[in-house]
């Protein structure tokens, strides 16, 4: 869900979270075999917990393996209200996508929620484990990264293309993509010690985006909404995507460019350590293809006729807004400097 704040993440951050959340992890490790047994109508003794991670969005994720050929499950227990909402929303989204007859190519990559409910007053869900290893660990080697990015760009088309529709962007359509995020950004910037210049930029941005986008006809579709390598599972070393997790930010009638930009921006972030705001500024100055190391034609395809500057700004706004409104690091001064101010003073 939420993207790493510092370069050393997600590895260091996850380690710290694990260390800090021992009681939650222990409790989850104890109940997880029972929950899998209940979901599969089998006996508790057939299941054992292998690992429990505590994620940056406060979910304890236990991997449970069966003895013999019983398979593998993932039990998720959220520990904050926002994490509960996220998992419930993901279950709803997965239901909608699984039952959509236009998405057969996607189904095998989606988590399957075998059961959800409450145990000792706490929400949980049991998912069948998808094959593959987390893809964020595959970003450091160039060839592996390229293979993973090509596979990920290909598989997400199985969501974008079958659900796409032509949409005329009128002033009302931009309320969601431009006005609402900019209002929220304005509130956020107003709390800055010297908000004047930043506020001017936010207002100028509104005008610019309205002029660039109103009257344009674009394709919209369902998007994943947090399509970064940390939410992909893939074969190693071949880098073929075997699963896509974390669907609570998915939404219909959005621009597919959000998923494709996020995938490539975060790949650069994981490989080189740059802040997202720095990458956006670099792309505004030097072009998407040079910044994200993709052929110019491929980058142009992502944008579907929208000029690169408004496309990048829409992407940036959506991303930072999701982050500002999530729990955790949004008040981290380093994050604000690198992602909000860095862009506002350079556009
Ligand atoms: N169904 C699944 N099968 C295999 N691994 C999974 C599954 N769901 C989650 N994971 C692993 O657990 C990690 C955390 O799960 P995720 O849903 O992304 O939580 P968060 O919202 O906290 O990022 C994922 O990055 C992935 O490696
Ligand atoms: Mg995730």
Automatic annotation (TrEMBL):
InterPro entries (alphabetical): AGP_Transferase (IPR051678), Aminoglycoside_PTrfase (IPR002575), Kinase-like_dom_sf (IPR011009)
Domain Aminoglycoside phosphotransferase residues, every copy: 68-285
SUPFAM superfamilies xref list: Protein kinase-like (PK-like)
Alphabetized GO MF terms: transferase activity
Domain of life: Bacteria
Keyword vocabulary terms for this entry: Transferase
EC number assigned by the record: 2.7.1.-
Enzyme class, spelled out: transferase
Protein's name according to its UniProt entry: Aminoglycoside phosphotransferase family protein
